[in-house]
Amino acid sequence: MTVSFYPDIKTVSGVNNSHATSYRAWLQYTFITSTTYREQVMSLLKEMECLNGSDISESIEQEWTFAIRKMIGFQPAVVPEVKGNGLRIVYVDSMEKEAFHIKNEDGIQILAGGEAGALYAVFTLLRHIQRQGDLHSLNMKEKPANPLRIINHWDNMDGSVERGYAGESMFYRDDSFRENIVRWKDYARLLASVGINAVSINNVNVHKVESYLITERYLKDVARVADIFRAYGIRLLLSINYASPMEVGGLTHADPLEEDVAAFWKQAFDDVYQAIPDFLGVVVKADSENRPGPFTYGRTHAEGANMLADAIAPHNGIVIWRCFVYDCHQDWRDRTTDRARAAYDHFMPLDGAFKDNVILQIKNGPMDFQVREPVSPLIGALKQTNVIVEFQLAQEYLGQQRHAVYLLPQWKEILNFDTGHEGEGTFVKDIASGKTYNPTHSGIAAVGNLGDDYNWTGHTLAQVNLYGYGRLTWDPTLNEDDILSEWSDLTFGQEEHIQQLLEAILLPSWLTYERYTSPLGIGWMINPGHHYGPNIDGYEYDAWGTYHFADRNGLGVDRTVETGTGYTSQYAEQNAKIYNDPNTCPEELLLFFHHMPYNYELTSGKTIIQHIYDTHFEGVKGVESMVANWEALEGKIDDKRFSDVLERLKHQLSHAIEWRDIINTYFYRKSGIKDIHQRKIYE
Ligand code: GCV
């Protein structure tokens, strides 16, 4: 199927010309005003050697000619053979499929291991040109660190998106697929431009209708989506319902050790691959938050996953099995059960028991995407099991894309965490990339932050997180400052002043958010259900295992070996020791690991209660300067994006004040200890 390239923006549902800059995100391809630079590009890249006509080749040619025309003002000719100056793409068997080398040697050449590598190279070169990089001494040699670089959509077929903060689903409406090919294609372009190579397109909570995605009812539509993504080197995954043999197949059970169940899945996968021969595989949330799974039949997760793995193996498919398994019917009175322990307790004993095409997907922290959590102790501990680390782009607990929070600083900390499992230097980034244990599959996934909003992500500035996620999974050694400046150049233009203001707004934004919300790793304290806004006791007497245990003397969860839940012992020895002792525990996680008195003195010399007050006042000040910095951009960027972001930042400020006052008042009332600076804390 050929979709005409970048047609009038109005053909995208819900998008009109006034949304153009918002919609184009970082693929603006802004006209370059420097005549010298344009002339250089024109002379070096007059022509492009045409490729073999495959889907990806077509995407490459379209992207290249379109982008050069927009940035430079001329249309490079696509010719069978470049004679003079031009762009040549040469496939080299000895290179890995996604690798490339861009160089200027007898003209500008891209050496690539395969078509995906060539596509990534073209996007890289276009980025370089947009930033007016030097073309004479070009020498960019790259390959992705992580083999799997995935976005997980939590889209439902009724059009809603679980934890979606950017409009409705771009894939579905009213239990059908939408006619949204242009947007899908533009989405695929955005993803490919930052190296994402796999997408799951439905919620991990697979309800009745979505269970049929793997059947004749929807497979033609799924194949349509796969066609679009394939042209951008992206493979498709579907989330499946573990109880499909019953829901779809009419069986009376879904016991993984029973032959009829295995036969159901074998047939289902045969059908899927018949429709989509390069289908990547399935994502499974089993025995988690009331979803069905092998526990119902007294089977282990290895037995459950391996049965699916066998059924999909003839097609070289993979089974991504999530480790977000915990007791969500906990009794708050029971102080021995600790949700943080759950993933490790469930999966560690199964290390080595999974088939080669099963990959365990582990959330970055042991709880659930809080503003601050330690790294999941399962990451690194599993040595004989394929692993994917899961992040969340959707800012479920980080302001739901109404607050501007740049997530890269958080992810960098996580990826650079030393798990210590193979001695010093066993970093999360090397476990995810497969460098440490050399597994058959590995990588990183993130819950997407996209919908059908005209700017994709609800908050225009949340685009940076998608961009940064792609760049970081491609190369985890990139730093957050460089990624931000790349993004801001591409998205808002190269004026230094704009970049400085965006850096001032975004670089500290994660810490700012942490300051006005949740102190010292305690987490939660949010409204139940929708998870937006402060509610300190919202989950305190609930069944979800998310407690802060604040009383009149102190707060925090005792997870030590001696007096607490023993969670600290799940880490490799050195980390376990550090976390177990409040004197060595990193202070930003102190209350995650320890129940501490309000008057405990931190290294800053402040007591915990004073720290709570101070950070909450500072957090609001931080948002005030975000607003002021953004206001300084008036007239420097287009009105639409300017006013959209300003509106959200103003909301963020009022919401930060709400957070500050509720938290400060709560802990003042609990502790009875006054702010030494006598600022306004409501009684
Ligand atoms: C898709 C959290 C979210 C749920 C989500 C779940 C998960 O609990 O609140 O909406 O469900 O994580 O990751 O499966």
TrEMBL record:
Q: Where is the Glycosyl hydrolase family 67 catalytic domain?
A: 129-456
High-level lineage: Bacteria, Bacillati, Bacillota, Bacilli, Bacillales
Coiled-coil stretches, from where to where?
Answer: none
Glycosyl hydrolase family 67 C-terminal domain residues: 457-679
This protein's species is Paenalkalicoccus suaedae
Q: How does it assemble?
A: Homodimer.
Q: Is Hydrolase set as a keyword in this record?
A: yes
| Active site location | E289, D368, E396
The broad enzyme category this protein falls into is: hydrolase
Which InterPro entries does this one have? A-glucoronidase_C_sf, GH, Glyco_hydro_67_aGlcAse, Glyco_hydro_67_aGlcAse_N, Glyco_hydro_67_C, Glyco_hydro_67_cat, Hex-like_dom2
Citing just one GO molecular function, the answer is: alpha-glucuronidase activity
Question: What EC number is given for this enzyme?
Answer: 3.2.1.131
The reaction(s) annotated as catalysed by this protein in its Swiss-Prot or TrEMBL entry are: Hydrolysis of (1->2)-alpha-D-(4-O-methyl)glucuronosyl links in the main chain of hardwood xylans
Name the chain's protein. Answer: Xylan alpha-1,2-glucuronidase
Q: Which GO terms describe its cellular component?
A: extracellular region
